[in-house]
Amino acid sequence: MSDKTPFEVISDYCKTEEKNTVVRDLAYSIYRQQYESLTKDAGTNQTSIDAIQKTLLSKGNLVAHVRSAEDVLKRQFQNDLKPIQSKATKDSFWLSVGSGIVSNILYSLLLIIIFVIAKDQLGTWLSALIEQKP
Fold first, then answer.
1. For the purposes of burial, counting CB atoms within 10 Å of the CB of 10, is it exposed (0-12), middle (13-18) or buried (19 or more)?
2. Cα–Cα 20 to 30 A to 129, which of 15, 39, 86, 108?
3. Phi then psi for 81, rounded to 5 degrees?
């Protein structure tokens, strides 16, 4: 094998393919799981272990590890997003409509109250403005 550790090989591949660290770590985890599963069956034969490691770190398997990691992340993201989207589309729409209606009614009532209370004040102010015009 080379001087690099399996993590470094996967990390270098992810850097060249511009994958983020989450994908890199998950791809390494997938590699590690496959490596442990295959080496458990191979026993302690170092030649077999080296062959397994070389095979798992080949270009095709690196692509497969990264794609598997991206698929897992995509599925997890979509599963976590589904309840939020369904709740957001139903509940928040009607909450927004209701709060808009209530706020417009309260604003209108507030303006009516202000004009009723201050109509004498506004009348004297407007008449003073009219009288000041030459």
1. buried
2. 108
3. -80, -30
Cα(68)–Cα(79) distance, integer angstroms: 16
End-to-end CA distance of the chain: 99
Q: Given the structure tokens 């004040």, which residue do they identify?
A: 121
In whole angstroms, how far apart are CA 40 and each of 31, 32, 34, 47, 80? 14, 12, 10, 14, 35
Q: What are phi and psi of 104, to 5 degrees?
A: -65, -40
Please name the residues in contact with 114: beta carbons below 8 A apart, sequence gap of 6 or more: none
Residue 111's Cα: distance from chain center in Å? Answer: 43
User: Whole-prediction pTM value?
Assistant: 0.59
- Give 10-residue mean pLDDT values along the chain (134 residues): 80 89 91 87 75 87 92 91 75 84 96 86 81 72
Q: What is the pLDDT of residue 68?
A: 93
The Cα-based distances of 130 to 11, 98, 116, 127, 133 in angstroms read 79, 43, 21, 5, 6
Residue 65 and residue 27 in contact, taking contact as beta carbons nearer than 8 Å: yes
